[in-house]
From TrEMBL:
The protein's name in its UniProt record: SHOCT domain-containing protein
Matching InterPro entries: SHOCT (IPR018649)
The UniProt record lists the keyword Membrane: yes
Protein's organism: Natrinema salsiterrestre
Key words of the record: Membrane, Transmembrane, Transmembrane helix
One protein family per Pfam: SHOCT
Amino acid sequence: MATGNTGGREYSLVELFAIKFVLADVLIIALLLLAGPVYAIAATALIVIGGLGLWYLAGRTGGDESPDPGPDRALEDPETTASETDPVTTLQERYAAGELSEAEFEAKLDRLIESNERADSAGVETDDLSLERRG
């Protein structure tokens, strides 16, 4: 995640970078005054390389600061696509909306149950679709 939690306050990625560079300036000035320009230049190079590395890694992870809505929130959101929910829930929603007749619903549900059983017998993990055949 792109935010850090320090002292009960959430910091955005931009704030973290700003804090990092303010602290870096203090370190560079202290090195310049106490150790000499060679150490200050070396510290500056390390800080810049570190900052670019963090920026690159933050970009690779998406940099999205919005929290994960969770499974309950995904069902409430009308913008949620069918691919984000499991097949049984999608099937139930289509049946409830009147898109499927009872016979179509039962046939599709039977196919889902059969495919789940085949996956279980083949050793494929099916956490998203855990069904048992009714007698």
